[in-house]
Amino acid sequence: MRENNTDRHHRGGRRRFRHxxxxxxxxxxxxxxxxxxxxxxxMASAVAFGPDQGPAHxxxxxxxxxxxxxxxxxxxxxxxxxxxxxxIVEKENSRFExxxxxxxxxxxxxxxxxxxxxxxxxx
Length: 123
Ligand SMILES: [Zn+2]
Hints:
By secondary structure, the protein is an alpha+beta fold. The chain has one domain. The chain has two helices and seven strands. It is elongated, with a radius of gyration of 25 Å.
């Protein structure tokens, strides 16, 4: 008679924890810019632009607004924050006067790609 070689030890009972959430390596796929169609490598700095609120390079948005806005010297376009650009005139002591505000990003309905990013960076 042969020995019944049943292995009664519980093997593999320990869970192997994956450390994904400890050190998230977020790789954001580059999306094409709606202005120049080149991929945006820095999605975190992309601006939601146009009727579709697609991602665009910050510089491209600045360029588009400069073309679109009838600027009177010394007016220039600047980013005011929170998806808001403005036509400004620089004053002394690094102050500036806002002549017009240009809402570029819809603050109430952020596009899907932006929500995705926010989720990633909230961790
Ligand atoms: Zn671009």
